[in-house]
Design goal:
Two copies of one chain form a homodimer.
Chain A lengths: L6 H4 L5 H18 L3 E2 H8 L3 H14 L2 E4 L14 E4 L5 E7 L3 E7 L5 E8 L7 H18 L7 E8 L14 H18 L3 E5 H11 L9 E6 L3 E7 L2 E2 L13 H5 L7 H14 L14 H9 L3 H25 L3 E5 L3 H4 L3 H11 L5 E4 L6 H17 L12
Helix pairs in contact in A: 2-4, 7-14, 9-11, 10-11, 11-13
Chain A binds a DNA duplex (30 and 30 nucleotides) through helix 2 and helix 4.
Chain lengths: 405, 405
DNA sequence: GCAGAATAATTTAGACTCTAAATATAGGTC
DNA sequence: GACCTATATTTAGAGTCTAAATTATTCTGC
């Protein structure tokens, strides 16, 4: 659909080596996604010739992406012992950052996504400046690297999630006054300080990647992940691709106001407080709390005790969520909607009600599940994003310690 | 984001010829998108060597995709006269079909998208059976080919739009009882009868392709096209790609009920009638029409005459449209929303009101324009779809009349 | 121990493609 | 007619793949 780019001139010179790029990618993909393989297995998997597979593997070993395994033969086998090659998951590391309003989390993972180290840090000020944020983020990342017994030089890519729209070029959308100045700062500053390749991304988008990778949406290609808590936003994946929209603002759910007449967008936690306080004020009970003391947790706890007013609040929340999911289902037709964010722990109890209402609201209801990734979805998604980037650039990257020219 | 497929084995054998495929694509893309070029120009455009470009061009000529032009030199020029090559737009044709409820339209275009012939046919029965539909569609397509002085054997691809969800594999989504049986019938039957390669697609999706190709959204990568009339649906393009969703149902706008409390989905024309009739019944005028006589056209005409009740209906329509567009803008963040379908002729007068309301409803309002493609959007989009398919498969297609083995 | 079977690695020959550099060609200019 | 210019063609060299032939390693059975 419409040309992508003046094709040739920019895509580097063509030549016999592009063939090698294709074959090397094929082999590397197999190695990355599976255990060590014998050459014969790789021949079967890729459809390439034995001679080619060996040449490619030796190439990959030289470049640091693969290693030859010394095989331990279990039982007696016939024939010449095969050579086996495996992916070098320790060829480098990636970092996943979840940069929140008050704190930041860093994960360090190997090239297969195994988490090697974690750290988190809090911003001292409640409204920290760019410098403060940058320092905390940077030192948290370094701390996670230390916990992983790794070092900044070994980092091949960094994924970073922020609670703001991020466009396709990795810039925080204009008009988002708070982040506007900081975004360029983050990617540029981390590159400056450590030489890192930073991929900035909206947090809900990363949560979606994480759910698709390790969570409730594992392996599905059409998914929406709703992050509900103080904020409300969604990460959308269609046909395996993140949707960002023109300015990176896709996935905002501020149409809530249109859906049931509320004024402006509201996080679910906020709503629970607000509606809970209403109920308390109307002296409908809620465990005798004063309206000012009503927290989201208190409402959920009261509902557990059978408080009818609190249960009424939950019904309203179910309705609200069902409407949001109904709009997503109708407009985007995902296979599954995952509920995540701060609401996740409480969401399980809303699920039956939501599913029931959803069926009435749309002809194409998605499945609905609750995230099981706890607080780590965004950081895990950042890891996934970084891994994807590394996989894409693999053959252009010179791995530290490789003997390649 | 997750592996796509067991890479190698299915992708055909690798070898030096894949390089040729790359270079040939690069040259062919340039030729297709521009006038005839001299070899030197192609060298600049593609970054390839002169020797390569000539070899590739001669290859393309042999395969029927390009032709060598005899140059007419305008003024005196220095140097050896260059060879020039051009795309052979007449190497074959594509067909675009708009299969509606009551009639069908067929366009025939050359490989550059120039429309060569048109035809349309009506179904005799109001609820025609599969056989009747198939016969009319087939003969309409053949009539359009005749009008284009072409023939069924020259058809390289057929795009076909239907008013039903179509999933990625080209099948009408299950549960859509009416089309369910017919869809497979259409693609299979046209292949059977004429050997055509048929690409079934949702009509709103095709309208979106058309707007992006020739219409108000020319060249934009993030667009939504709302088809409003008796029915209501949208075609969504994000990052240059159509969104289909899990079952092809993406773009449905039946969430309208959620947005302002209406029951079930309603086409705009229906609403105009309904609300107009309400207004008439409340004896608020509407040019003295009896409620039963109120048509959408009558409402718009009355508004033109300054009838306040009719204007009230238009305000309500503006509000409804603005809400729909607001949801699209917020959730998908397109750059532009195009209003098309039966509403298009009347929509221009709603535009100012819609734009004004939209700004109040979302933080990321899209631009809003009215389609200028008149009734042809779907059929044109079908042509575009077919052309894209041909472009993608170009080097695997044996063009009729080529001397390639 | 040793021939033979089984499996895999390595080598060799052949084909195709690209680039780069050298050579040839077709016009115009002086 | 000699020269200049822009282009075309040829030639040499390198990289890559496949396919087929050759060599290597191990186990089995006697």
């Amino acid at each position: 659909m419409v040309k992508t780019a003046r094709s040739g001139a920019e895509n580097g010179p063509v030549g016999p080596h592009v063939v090698r790029r294709v074959t090397a990618s094929a082999v590397l993909d197999e190695l990355r996604s599976g255990g060590p393989f014998t050459v014969s297995e790789l021949v079967d998997l890729t459809g390439l010739t034995r001679a080619t597979v060996i040449a490619v593997c030796e190439d990959l070993v030289r470049r640091g992406w693969a290693e030859e395994h010394v095989l331990e033969r279990l039982g007696p086998q016939r024939g010449r012992p095969p050579r086996t090659f495996g992916f070098r998951a320790d060829g480098g590391v990636v970092v996943g950052l979840d940069i929140g309003a008050h704190k930041t989390t860093a994960l360090v993972a190997d090239l297969r996504g195994e988490i090697l180290g974690t750290a988190s840090g809090a911003f001292r000020d409640s409204e920290p400046g760019a410098r403060e944020r940058l320092d905390v983020v940077s030192s948290t990342a370094v701390a996670a690297l230390r916990a992983a017994s790794s070092a900044p030089e070994r980092v091949l890519a960094v994924g970073a999630g922020v609670a703001a729209p991020v466009d396709r070029s990795g810039h925080v959308a204009e008009g988002s006054d708070f982040w506007e100045m900081f975004d360029v700062g983050l990617a540029a500053a981390l590159r400056e300080r450590h030489g890192w390749h930073v991929l900035l991304e909206n947090d809900a988008n990363l949560a979606a990647l994480a759910e698709q990778w390790l969570g409730a949406a594992r392996g599905l290609d059409d998914v929406a992940v709703v992050l509900a808590g103080e904020r409300l936003g969604a990460g959308l994946i269609e046909s395996g691709r993140l949707l960002r929209g023109r300015n990176g603002a896709a996935g905002e759910l501020a149409f809530l106001g249109l859906v049931d007449g509320a004024v402006g967008p509201h996080g679910i936690a906020q709503l629970a407080r607000e509606w809970g306080a209403e109920a308390a004020a109307q002296s409908r009970g809620l465990a005798g709390l004063a309206p000012a003391d009503v927290t989201a947790e208190a409402v959920f706890a009261a509902a557990d005790d059978g408080d009818p007013a609190a249960e009424g609040v939950l019904r309203r929340l179910e309705g609200r969520m069902a409407r949001v999911i109904a709009v997503l289902s109708t407009l985007l037709n995902p296979e599954l909607v995952v509920l995540g964010g701060a609401i996740a722990p409480a969401a399980a109890r809303l699920l039956p009600g939501i599913r029931l209402e959803l069926k009435e609201l749309t002809e194409t209801p998605a499945e609905v599940e609750v995230s099981a990734l706890e607080g780590e979805a965004v950081a895990l998604g950042a890891v996934r994003r970084a891994l994807d980037d590394v996989a894409e650039r693999a053959l252009e990257i010179d791995l530290p310690g490789s003997q390649a020219g």
